[in-house]
């Protein structure tokens, strides 16, 4: 009998131990999602815990949470407990990411979740729901890629403009680019947009407002059908609701919408084979060609510069200039390449050049042969060849080269070894002239009198500076004001950085107000209530006007989550917060 009782007791203890096992897990709504979708992450535990520490969520932006939910239940006398921390995440880019470990302390022990791998793909289509604010926003905002030419030639410039269209029924408060196309088979150049300006336009026959958010010039480097990847942005949209405020105005709800421009296919044509010149190096556009020299006559050993230059509109940075050819009696150095090119939506324009330094060794007349430059003009769809004129370099003085014979028929030269004489490079200065420096005595010199009189000037200045510092140190009230202003700026620095984004600004402002009270008065998060703040301010003799302004700022931070706020109102709240913190700190 005793043995049976012992077995029963052991069995019950084993059941209780199994039931008392602590579980702390991470659950996700999906492990693969598009860059325009959202991810829900739940951290679930079956026992109450403390010091919950979430992961950093690399590759995502937190758009909701953390929210908490607690569940208690009793089934057949058995207690069941569950507590969940929930986050809503929005991907910031494509790729593979890991939701790292979260941790919590339960009964003195630290527990961690298992990392979860998430794959973020390009934008995906979403199901339609006429009552969903996200769907309403998606139907009223559109990102469109406007391509200048869908059938360009190889190396012909095309432009792409990304325009964000918005229906007049919704308002766009902010947007951020989260996924930029790579344009793998193109040479690309982004054009600076500058300040975003709202313009009127039409989209599918309807009146829309639009903003030009990105401009890019493309030069296709491959023929055939090439795909332009979509640009994806995150837009904050104020969607009208059926609710009205106290004054009868329509209440708007802010939603975040990820919009993609959609893929575009460009059919790149090959350059014609018929009529292609032998010296063609890939230049496409409309160009002018010239070869110039800075001297017509010089002496042996002096130098001249010959410049090969192409100017016009086209793919100036994507082809090579023809090489200069000169007789062997002219010593030629490697050319200096220069580019003066501007890029606009029409493509590249300007000029490129190679400047050669030439040094003749012997007396005589030396021709610089004609050069040819060929390019394809996409407007006429024909090749063109431009020729330079022949230049003759006249070397007036110097040794005579009897070992080189010039064929006047074809300008070919029999190359001979160059013999350098003492007059070579006479145009370069290789000698220097030196002159003695007159010695002088230090006594009664300018430096002597300067060092003698300097203390008489420096000492009064030092005394005045020290006196000024003492005045500042003794100015108790002034120091309080300066210290209060410095503290206000310190706590509001993050809010000022986020003035461009309503959500980030008011989140930072709310944190700064909370951190200030925590640092000065020891008010914790659980005690952060308006009544508590009013009581503490009253005990510390803070003026009622200052207290009301502080409470009003807190209310603005709370209302900003649900109502549209203008940039002017955000600036006013920031300035008010700086004045309020400064005023409170003077009293405290």
Automatic annotation (TrEMBL):
Entry-linked InterPro entries: BatD
TM annotation in the entry: 447-466
Key words, A-Z: Membrane, Signal, Transmembrane, Transmembrane helix
Signal peptide (residue range): 1-20
The UniProt record lists the keyword Transmembrane: yes
Domain of life: Bacteria
The keyword Metal-binding is annotated on this UniProt entry: no
Protein name, as recorded: BatD family protein
């Amino acid at each position: 009998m005793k043995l049976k009782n012992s077995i029963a007791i052991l069995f019950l203890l084993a059941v209780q131990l199994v039931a008392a096992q602590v579980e702390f897990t991470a659950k996700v709504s999906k492990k693969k999602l598009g860059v325009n979708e959202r991810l829900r992450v739940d951290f679930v535990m079956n026992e109450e815990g403390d010091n919950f520490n979430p992961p950093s969520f690399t590759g995502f932006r937190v758009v909701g949470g953390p929210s908490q939910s607690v569940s208690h239940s009793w089934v057949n006398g058995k207690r069941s407990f569950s507590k969940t921390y929930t986050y809503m995440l929005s991907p910031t880019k494509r790729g593979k990411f890991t939701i790292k470990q979260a941790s919590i302390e339960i009964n003195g022990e630290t527990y961690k979740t298992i990392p979860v791998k998430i794959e973020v793909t390009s934008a995906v289509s979403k199901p339609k729901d006429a009552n969903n604010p996200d769907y309403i926003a998606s139907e009223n905002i559109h990102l469109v890629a406007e391509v200048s030419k869908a059938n360009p030639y190889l190396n012909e410039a095309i432009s792409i403009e990304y325009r964000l269209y918005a229906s007049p029924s919704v308002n766009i408060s902010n947007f951020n680019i989260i996924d930029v196309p790579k344009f793998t088979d193109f040479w690309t150049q982004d054009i600076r947009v500058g300040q975003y300006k709202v313009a009127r336009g039409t989209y599918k026959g309807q009146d829309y407002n639009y903003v030009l958010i990105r401009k890019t010039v493309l030069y296709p480097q491959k023929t055939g059908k090439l795909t332009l990847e979509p640009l994806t942005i995150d837009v904050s949209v104020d969607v009208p609701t059926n609710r009205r405020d106290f004054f009868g105005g329509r209440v708007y709800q802010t939603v975040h919408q990820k919009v993609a421009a959609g893929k575009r296919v460009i059919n790149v044509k090959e350059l014609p084979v018929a009529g292609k010149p032998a010296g063609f190096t890939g230049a496409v556009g409309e160009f002018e060609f010239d070869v110039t020299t800075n001297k017509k006559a010089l002496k042996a050993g002096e130098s001249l510069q010959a410049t090969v230059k192409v100017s016009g509109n086209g793919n100036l940075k994507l082809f090579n200039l023809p090489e200069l050819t000169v007789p062997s009696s002219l010593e030629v150095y490697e050319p200096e390449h220069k580019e003066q090119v501007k890029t606009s939506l029409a493509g590249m324009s300007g000029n490129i050049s190679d400047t050669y330094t030439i040094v003749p060794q012997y007396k005589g007349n030396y021709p610089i042969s004609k050069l040819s430059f060929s390019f394809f003009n996409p407007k006429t769809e024909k090749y063109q060849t431009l020729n330079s004129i022949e230049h003759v370099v006249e070397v007036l003085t110097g040794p005579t080269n009897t070992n080189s014979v010039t064929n006047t028929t074809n300008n070919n030269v029999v190359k001979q070894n160059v013999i350098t004489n003492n007059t070579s490079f006479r145009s370069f200065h290789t000698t220097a002239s030196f002159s003695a420096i007159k010695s002088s005595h230090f006594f009664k010199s300018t430096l002597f009198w300067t060092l003698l009189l300097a203390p008489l000037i420096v000492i009064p200045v030092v005394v005045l500076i020290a006196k000024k510092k003492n005045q500042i140190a003794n100015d108790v009230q002034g120091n309080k004001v300066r210290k209060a202003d410095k503290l206000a700026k310190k706590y509001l620095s993050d809010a000022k950085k986020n003035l461009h984004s309503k959500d980030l600004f008011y989140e930072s402002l709310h944190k700064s107000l909370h951190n200030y009270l925590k640092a000065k008065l020891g008010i914790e998060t659980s005690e952060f209530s308006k009544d508590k703040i009013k009581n503490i301010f009253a005990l510390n003799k803070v003026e009622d006007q200052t207290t009301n302004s502080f409470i009003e700022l807190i209310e603005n931070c709370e209302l900003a989550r649900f109502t549209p706020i203008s940039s002017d109102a955000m600036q006013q709240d920031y300035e008010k917060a700086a004045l309020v913190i400064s005023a409170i700190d003077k009293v405290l």
